Each structure stands twice: as C-alpha cells, then as structure tokens.
Amino acid sequence: MKNFIVFIISFVVLFTVTQILSGMLLTTLYTPDLTESWMASGYSPKSISFGNSTFMPTLILAIFSVIVAYFMPRLFKRISKN
C-alpha cells in the first residue's frame, strides 16, 4: 500500500511540474505578430471555431510521468536501505 501511495503522489507531482514547465516554455517561445493580427481582425468570421486540439503532448508527458513515478518507490527503498 505504501508503494502505491508513493507512486500516486510522485505521479501527480511529476505531471504537474512537467505541465507547468511545458507551459512556461511555450509562453517564452511565443512571439505575436501584431501586424498580421490587426489585418486579420477585419476579416474575422461571425462564428468562432475553436479548432482541432491534440492530446498527444499531454499524453507523452503523462506517460513520462508514469514511467518515472513507477521507479520512485524503488528508489526510495534503495535510499532507505543505505
């Protein structure tokens, strides 16, 4: 039961941290183009389409977090034995 709790806690922490870091990275790399947005504002459609969203980056981060969280209880056992 202790391994399961360590797994869940480490997964939640790792997933949250990776989401925050990827959001910060995307925010720092975004450069708006003011002239293009100003020109496109006159031709904006009456209905708004939210576009296609992909869950692939979130899925990749979740899989990475699960893999790392799976090995965290083993790491804690190894550290506690020493």
Question: What do you see in this structure?
Answer:
By secondary structure, the protein is mostly helical. It has helices at 2-29, 34-40, 56-81. Helix 1 packs across helix 3. The radius of gyration is 21 Å and the shape is elongated. The model has no long low-confidence stretch (mean pLDDT 80).
Give the strand tally: 0
Give the low-pLDDT segments: none
Strand content: under 5%
Supply Rg. Answer: 21 Å
What profile does the largest beta sheet have? none
SSE order, one letter for each helix or strand: HHH
Give the terminus-to-terminus CA distance.
Answer: 22 Å
Number of helices: 3
Shape: elongated
Give the structural class.
mainly alpha
**What is the helix content?**
over 70%
**What is the typical, i.e. mean, pLDDT?**
80
How would the blueprint of this fold be written?
Elements: H1 2-29, H2 34-40, H3 56-81
Helix pairs in contact: 1-3
Keywords:
mainly alpha; elongated; single chain; 82 residues
Task: Give the structure's gist in a few sentences.
The chain is mostly helical and 82 residues long. It has helices at residues 2-29, 34-40, 56-81.
